Amino acid sequence: MDYNSQRKKLILPEYGRNIQMMVDHLATITDRDERTRAAKTVISVMGNLYPHLRDVPDFRHKLWDHLMIMSNFTLDIDSPYPLPEKDILEEKPEKLPYNNHRIKYKHYGLLTEKLVEKIKETEDPEIKRVLTVLTANHMKKSFLTWNKDSVEDDQIYNDINTLYGGNIEMPEGMILSHSKDLLQKKNTKPTNNNKQQKNNKKQFYKKHN
What pTM value is reported for the model? Predict the structure, then answer.
């Protein structure tokens, strides 16, 4: 029995072995014009495998690139597109630099530190007040992600002061959202009323479109 593991390894397995055999056959055609015509036929067969992509821009360009790749860049044909270069395709991508930013409180995340920096930069008292309240509530919600029970507001105030690098001016009478409310918002699932409202909207748009 002939097992796939004993056969020639497919370069692009998504096209299957029959397409690969067609591509291999192209290399045996001596006449260049005939070889080009045969290549166009193979391209058509390859395109039939993915009819839903026919209207995608540059789809045929991609097919010609794949044809050349499956031939191991050995085909001498007249392609309607610039042929891909083997060296460029085999070139290894550059290594991405790691983010070495040290987060002081990992349970609050980097976004919280950016918000605190924004508070420092803001001069408008009203905007500064709103940012402080939003940041403190965001910190409380982030804290509850790791501690499901509760957290005292004083803990949040101390942590935001630490990130601020001093005593941040808290808005007078500032009260953070209750832990239960924050947890409830996070775990809220669509109610039957919400589902009914969505269905009503869909029916409305169907009638008026």
Answer: 0.48
